[in-house]
Specification:
- With 247 residues, the chain is mainly α.
- It is built from eleven helices and three strands; from the N terminus they run H-E-H-H-H-E-H-H-H-H-E-H-H-H.
- It has one domain (3-236).
- The chain is globular, with a radius of gyration of 19 Å.
Length: 247
C-alpha cells in the first residue's frame, strides 16, 4: 500500500481502540499484538543475534507486519538493546547463551528515598538513582558518557524509523503501550524493584500512589533523562507510547 492508504488504515485502527476504550461498539475487534521476542525467532533469528544488531530488528519487524495484519503492537521492535547497554559496561543481564533474558531485581531507590523522590523526582534520579542502579557511574569518564549518549541517540533513531516509517508509514499499524499501565510498571522495573513496590503497597501506599502520578507527568518522554536511568530496558515502552503520545 502507498503512504496515503497506510495513513488511512492507521487512523481507522486508532478509532477501533478509541471506540473500545470509550465503551462504544467498534467496527470490529481490534488485534493488539503482545509479541516481544517472538517476532525475532519467527523471522529465523536467535534472541542474542537481534539484541546486538538493529538491522536484524528492522528485517524482523518488516517481516512480522507483512505476515500478520495486526492493528497495533506493544513496542517498536527494539527490546533490551545491547548496543546501548554495553556502552558503559555496567549490565546485570545473565549470559544470553541459552537465549533467555534474566536479570536481578536491581533498582534506583530504597524506601528511605521516597521523600526525596516526592520533593524533586528528576533531581533524585540524577543524584541518587543513577548511582544506586549503576554503582560504577562515578567512575565513568566523559568519553564513556559521550558514547552512551551517542548510542542512546542511535536507539531513538532506529525506534523512530520502526514506529513512523515502518509501522505507521508502510503498514498503517499503531505502535505503543497504552498509558494506563505506565505507573506501577515503571516503578517496579526501574525505580523501586518488584520487592520494593510490593512492600510500598503495604507500608507506603499513599507515597507510592503520589509518585506514580508524579513520574507519569514528569517522565513522559525518556529523552529528558539521558542515557543513564533507562539504559538497560528503555525500549520496553513503559515510559510513554513509542510515538511519544497517547492514542
Amino acid at each position: 500500500m502507498d503512504k496515503k492508504q497506510a495513513e488511512a488504515l492507521y487512523l481507522e485502527r486508532c478509532k477501533l481502540f478509541r471506540d473500545t476504550i470509550a465503551f462504544k461498539k467498534p467496527a470490529r475487534i481490534p488485534y493488539y499484538a503482545n509479541i516481544w521476542t517472538w517476532r525475532w525467532t519467527d523471522a529465523g533469528y536467535t534472541v542474542s543475534e537481534v539484541c546486538h544488531d538493529y538491522e536484524k530488528v528492522k528485517i524482523a519487524m518488516d517481516l512480522f507486519f507483512s505476515k500478520y495484519k495486526v492493528d497495533a503492537v506493544v513496542d517498536s521492535g527494539v527490546r533490551n538493546p545491547f548496543p546501548l547497554v554495553n556502552t558503559l559496561g555496567d549490565s546485570w543481564y545473565d549470559d544470553l547463551g541459552k537465549e533467555k533474558f534474566n536479570c536481578d531485581d536491581k533498582y534506583c531507590f530504597e524506601a528511605e528515598h521516597l521523600d526525596a523522590m516526592k520533593e524533586n523526582f528528576l533531581k533524585a534520579l540524577w543524584e541518587i538513582g543513577q548511582f544506586k542502579k549503576f554503582p560504577n557511574a562515578k567512575k565513568y569518564t566523559p568519553e564513556q558518557y559521550a558514547q552512551a549518549a551517542k548510542s542512546l541517540q542511535e536507539l531513538f533513531d532506529v525506534r523512530d524509523w520502526l514506529v513512523h516509517d515502518l509501522a505507521r508509514g508502510k503498514y498503517g499499524c499503531y505502535c505503543g503501550w497504552t498509558p494506563n499501565v505506565v505507573g506501577f510498571e515503571v516503578m517496579y522495573l526501574f525505580f523501586r524493584g518488584i520487592k520494593g513496590v510490593s512492600l510500598d503497597l503495604r507500608r507506603n501506599p499513599q507515597k507510592l500512589i503520589w509518585l506514580n502520578t508524579c513520574q507519569e507527568k514528569n517522565l513522559s518522554i525518556p529523552k529528558k533523562l539521558g542515557p543513564i536511568i533507562f539504559i538497560e530496558r528503555l525500549d520496553r515502552g513503559g515510559v510513554c507510547n513509542n510515538d511519544g503520545r497517547a492514542l
